[in-house]
User: Fold these one by one.
Assistant:
Number 1:
Amino acid sequence: MATLNDAQKMVDVLGKFIDIVSKELPDDVMAKLSELRVQEANPLAKTIYDVMFDNLDKAKKLNRPACQDTGVIQFFVRAGAKFPLLGDLRRILREATISATKSAPLRLNAVEVFDEVNTGTNVGTNVPFIEWEIVDDSSNIEIEVYQAGGGCSLPGRSIVLPPLAGYEGAMKFVFDTIVDWGINACPPLVVGVGIGTCSNSAALLSKKAMLRPVGTSHPHPKAAEMEKTIEEGLNAIGLGPQGISGKNSVMAVHVEGMAHHPSVLGVGVTVGCWANRHGVIRFDEHLNYEIISHKGVKL
Ligand code: SF4
């Protein structure tokens, strides 16, 4: 039986985790940035990578966020149906957000809708954003936190294409979006593409695709081929780090999909920036936790 103390323990752990995620990039992103840095030959682009790594080093040493825009906090929850604190989780996630906002500190990025007044806490109507998946027969919970900055959210788009547009039309939409808007999102980018029926299903899948660990491919060979084709095409544009031109535009392109209505093809695009601050933590029913995304990090 879960107690108030258990809930507070989870608030404390999650608050510290959100704080860490604002300051240290996950292992997959660090590994890919290191790889792209080595590949870069353009002197200005090499300098930008040096500055990025110096920035990350200083963020860690000085205990400060890696970018001034710490984003809107978003949670992607894969909750076991038997996890004991499920009924209190929304409050726990909101409290943890408020706690990290004070400790990190995070920039105050929740502007209340319609009133256009900053709430001052990073909490507001439907913020933090929470997306739930219930996992049958499990008592564990996996919580992914993402810090959605303004610049990297700006290229986000979704569209519903007529059936004849096909996957070629979907890829054209991705290219048009990144060519027009990608430079605003501080490349090298992680591009998530969602294929669905309507604009919301495609958009949500594109966010989930963007959050997939960098370095993974879709298990379906046609989706993996699409990822490779878009990645090669976007890299050929040569946006380079921070868009000043260079060898690569992207860290990765990830595609996710779902069965769709035969008359339409929904396509969503979500972009993550070089400072791609996401992290995954898993709790068991006794609130023992494991940090999946940042190996060796202690809270
Ligand atoms: S796009 Fe990313 S790195 Fe650039 S300012 Fe926004 S949050 Fe920071």
Number 2:
Amino acid sequence: MTRYRLQLRHPSGVTPIHVGDGVLSDDSSQLEDWVLDRRVFVISSPTVLGLHARVLAPLSERAATWNVLEVPEGEDAKSLEVAGSLWEAILEAGGKRDSRILAFGGGSVGDLAGFVAGSYMRGIDYAQVPTTLLAQVDAAIGGKTAINLTKAKNSVGLFHHPQRVVADTRLLRTLPREELRSGLMEVLKMAILSDGELFVALERDLEGLLSGDAATLSPVVAAAAEGKISIVERDPTERNERMLLNLGHTLGHALEAGLDYRLLRHGEAVGYGLLFAVRLAEKRGLSADTAGRIRQLVDRFELPKLPALEVDTLIEFMGRDKKIDEGGWRWVLPTELGSCEVVSDLAREEVEQALQAFLTELS
Ligand SMILES: NC(=O)c1ccc[n+]([C@@H]2O[C@H](COP(=O)([O-])OP(=O)(O)OC[C@H]3O[C@@H](n4cnc5c(N)ncnc54)[C@H](O)[C@@H]3O)[C@@H](O)[C@H]2O)c1
């Protein structure tokens, strides 16, 4: 079985990232050493614990103490109340500066656990064991942590890199197809951004990937993770190049917010965002052939139908996106497969018209 050993160099050190089918149980990741004789706090969701808690049993035997802290499913975990209850529980159970937090779950659990680890006693060490595809290829990598405010997602957070990331693709077997689809859309984003070969692999293997087959998923997870690593290494705090990762997210975030974060998964919203970016890019010279290949691949994901939405509502949510600064809107648009540009000279009217036409075609 192929295992992939990657690493992310960042301002506070190096994070080893292990990817593969069964990589958690063979301990090539040395997580057992990382927990040895420490007070360990595992943060996880009921679903993940119900399905996979036993894979952590060997680790629990090495720790000095092992506390499992359960948090709500999905976005409900990323609140100040939940973070506060975790700080209190960790303190109550004797958590010290050398204690360790293990994030065991999807991106929601990872974002919350990283935030709690980054702020508890001014920062303690944590590791990520991501259990969704989206978290394995994206959320667990790069050191961004966050909780949500009532009206603004991910608005409070800090950069705090995990000491290890162990992405075991075997854990993805239990992931519902819709969650796999959501994660694969981030893989597709990465392929359009920086890896034409990855795009071809998606065209070839999409069905196997959507079925959660660990052997098919492993090289694709590793390639997407490598893509993210190389962009984050060049721009760790999102001052310039890391903005490329926003491909498909300008409209994607507005769709999620416009639908109250309930009707579309993150990757599904990004799928519509990618289609819209292709539309804008075609007007600036993206070839019809490349645009067609991207559209055909997104079609094969069979995204859920988009409910009726007003252009004005979406434009307003786009204006609130925290990635828009005083300089105005910036769009990430594909120029060819494996390459994108950041564009800031699109007139608002042009975007409004294109969005109206896009929504009309979809209805
Ligand atoms: N920090 C970053 O750089 C970054 C990047 C992208 C996304 N995110 C964040 O990630 C979050 C989304 O993460 P997500 O898509 O992983 O969703 P999620 O964490 O909300 O998980 C979705 C559901 O899948 C369940 N689940 C997790 N693993 C499972 C498994 N192996 N089998 C069956 N069910 C499983 C979870 O319990 C949950 O109910 C968002 O909050 C987003 O803001 C962060």
Number 3:
Amino acid sequence: MDKKIIIIGGGASALMLASLLPKNTATVIESNPKPGAKILISGGGKCNITNTRMGTGYFQADAAFVEPSLKRFDEKALIAWLAARKLHPVILKETQYFCKDSAKELLAVLLKESQKQSILLSEKVLEVSKRENIFYVKTDKKTYTARRVVIASGGLSFPTLGASSIGYEIAQSFGHSVIKTGPALVGFTVQKEQFFFKELSGVSCEVKIRIAEKVCEGSLLFAHKGISGPAVLDASLYWEKGQMEIDFLPHFSWQSLYGSKKQISSLLPLPKRLSKAFLVQFALEDKPCNHLSKDEINKLMYLSRYSFAPAGTFGYTKAEVTKGGINTSEINKETMMSLKEQGLYFIGEVLDVTGRLGGYNFQWAFSSAYSCAQHIKEETNED
Ligand SMILES: Cc1cc2nc3c(=O)[nH]c(=O)nc-3n(C[C@H](O)[C@H](O)[C@H](O)COP(=O)(O)OP(=O)(O)OC[C@H]3O[C@@H](n4cnc5c(N)ncnc54)[C@H](O)[C@@H]3O)c2cc1C
């Protein structure tokens, strides 16, 4: 029986899968001249691999789908797997595991482990078909056959690094549905009412952003094109057009304003440039707080619930991930195999599973690869 497995894509999930499968059982096909390009630029070049805080709540996904893989290969198992290969990530920002010096460290481990498989580079997969239990994987160079095909082709973000829609196209050609995709973990552009944000480029502050029932806390960074920063990137996971509400003073007690002789811009715990810009917007003079009328205080309190509709996002060229993707209700949550086509698997970002900022997307790439590998190993042993 032909045990060959073709893995489409040579990113994080594919390299982990290739590492976990028995020697000489898989062929990885990657369109880039080098595998793992995204790993190298991730986490500011240090790759935020995973997080000490793990759980389905950190994912925009069906929790019941994500849970078995996260349990089977959680952050502790991942860190142990890396440690056994002499990679010891460090915890930064309280909970986030990063490579000590460079993302190259993680890529080196994955490349070393996956060398036991054949890795084809600069070869683009064009389509997959199946006849009499054999998959035919057509690339821009030739057609390969396999008994199993794993789609690990990622999402649409960062097209310059090889992102393509091939995973969705293959899924659809086998009768799968794709949940609407969009750029996520990305900044927002603003409408003209908020053009003053652009003049604040470089200023940052701590905020709480609310979108429907979701709350994202952390830094907001005013950018040349709009707003960015960790809290904003997380918020983009939940935003679908329409309003969002920002609390620019999440830890401030408005009580401290009453009777204070301090100027407004001195009392508010915000960068002065920011307080002053808002005072202009609210048509308020910067004056001692005890000179403020009730109406003026009410205007100022809008800073705790600043509501506006972004114009859009910075788009796929800047987005760290793609939200949406292959409908997980059509995938076996224990094995990552298609419920529509025997032998066809999907792992990583191509699925409708998107993590928050903090290492969750790599954890998902690795956990889903692990579930897939376990199943293939069990099945091939039985052949
Ligand atoms: C700037 C940036 C920073 C990030 N930082 C972090 C971080 O610190 N922590 C974190 O958890 N996540 C981070 N991410 C997200 C993370 O990189 C992805 O979620 C993760 O790489 C997904 O793994 P994957 O294997 O599913 O897809 P990818 O890693 O995207 O791999 C898919 C591969 O498939 C290849 N491919 C596509 N089409 C074809 C085709 N037709 N034929 C052959 N090959 C094809 C692509 O070239 C690519 O190499 C970041 C992303 C970006 C863009």
